[in-house]
Amino acid sequence: MFLKMASSDGNKNTNTEPWGGFDDNIIQGTGSAVIDMENMDDTSGSSFEDMGEMHQRMKEEEEVAAEAEATEEETGEDGEFLGMKGIKGQLGRQVADEVWQAGKRQASKAFNLYANIDILRPYFDVEPIQVRNRLIESMIPIRMINFPQKIAGELYGPMMLVFTLVAILLHGMKTSGTVIREGTLMGTAIGTCFGYWLGVSSFIYFLAYLCNAQITMLQMLSLLGYGLFGHCVVLFVTYNVHFHSLFYILWLVIGGLSTLRMVAAIISRTVGQTPRLILCGTLAALHMLFLLYLHFAYHKIVEGILDTLEGPNLPPIQRVARDLPVVATAAVNAMNVTVKTLGVILQSH
Amino acid sequence: MAEVDESSKPMFAGLSDVSISTDIPVEGEINVPVGTSSQDDEYSTLDEPVKDTILRDLTAVGKKFVHVMYPKKSSALLRDWDLWGPLLLCVTLALMLQGGSVDSKEDEGPQFAEVFVIIWFGSVIITLNSKLLGGTISFFQSLCVLGYCIMPLTVAMIVCRLVLLGGSGKVSFIIRLLVVTASFSWSTFASTAFLADSQPTNRKALVVYPVFLFYFVIGWMILTFSQST
Description:
The longest helix of chain A has about 35 residues. Chain A has a two-stranded antiparallel ribbon with strand order 1-2. Chain A is flat and about 95 Å long. Chain A contains ten helices and two strands. Among the domains of chain A are: about 30 residues, no CATH class; about 160 residues, no CATH class. By secondary structure, chain A is mostly helical. In chain A, helix 6 runs antiparallel to helix 9, helix 7 runs antiparallel to helix 8 and helix 7 packs parallel to helix 9. The N and C termini of chain A lie far apart (about 85 Å). Helices cover about 65% and strands about 0% of the residues of chain A. In chain B, about 65% of the residues lie in helices and about 0% in strands. Chain B has ten helices and no strands. Chain B is elongated and about 95 Å long. Chain A: Belongs to the YIP1 family. Chain A: This is Protein YIPF3. Chain A: It is found in: Cell membrane; Cytoplasm; Golgi apparatus, cis-Golgi network membrane.
């Protein structure tokens, strides 16, 4: 029987099998991709070993063919070193292909081992309507705390919310006045939001582990991620409408609602008064304080930068009139001079 | 093969049931044109003059630019993907966004590296997202599409710089806002025309949203670019 090797479009071969898959270039001299398996021993049970044997056989055939051609060409053209023929020579081509195949196999092995995104695939299996419903539900606390509440384990919504929060922070910096040092602010924004989501989730998960709460890491990530929806709304509004009192009201109402939702979900999965208190207290404090921090810290950064910019324009140090005892005029002059130089030094900083 | 087994190794008679009987006809194409002809072409392009190579690549890039400007549902962008165009656009945008003059004390505006990193990592994340949502597009094809669709934003950047030459008052801000908004929605629409086809129909919104965010952030960087003279 014949084994057909399939090749994908053009040169792009998607090697997804862990054993290296079917290499397109494995047949060198022939124009077809048909492998005759009649000569294969049928004593092995697994196809893996068959493939290994086939690979070995192909390599040996190639090497034999390469040697044969090498000797042919060597005897054919006297005095010409094969290496000089470069890439055009048959031997060079063989070697190059060998190196390419070996490298490709190594790379695909490493890729499949470390960068296999398929482990994350089930967490992104959502419909838009589900995402919308979960966003709305994240603001509605459920009062049933005697029975474990259902927490959806998905990562699409939380990730999009974190990125949206980053975008809103950047937008906020722009509307709060002069935009300076955009580059580092952007890095800070991304680092803050992702750091909060991942860090606080891990910390609360650790506390939940200590307090014997029935919640998984994925559920915690998902819960906290959806809790950031309230933060996004509050920050979006308050970066455009600059009233401190409005911010406090929204902080309490919207921040409070989303915190209550998260807290109720965790309480429903914890047994005992003290563990419940610890978990909820920590989560509520961190969540509410983060919103405060986001509002005020970024204001301060921009204001601080503005201050340092206007530093040189500050008025020089004023001389305060003092009742000095009568001393020699030279001493008074000397003191004045020292104070002036001090002022100049301080001003130049 | 079954007959040979039966005659020479009677103790393995049970194995003969495993092999495929020759009565079942095997259908389909089993000759796949592999390798050697394309390899000959590859090696022969080393001999052609550099001008030919450059012109060929530039023509390919130019054709894709035209596809982006008039986004129809064609698969040309996806089939022959290349990353030259995105690289060109990214470098141009980053160079133009590099803010301020050398006399300013603080770094004004994003540095070249920031813009570069944001564009490429943003594209990688969007590609991963669309793959995780079950998309059929490959990694580099998606990078290619997202990179090429930055072109309207690059054009908007050029226009913004020209407008800023005239002055930086309210009117210029409104003009820049309109231009950037138009180009950013054009970018999003263009990339959606190519990317969304590879998704199941009811999940298009899930893929479009990160693309919208990505171009929004780039558009924001363009809009807030202010030159200090």
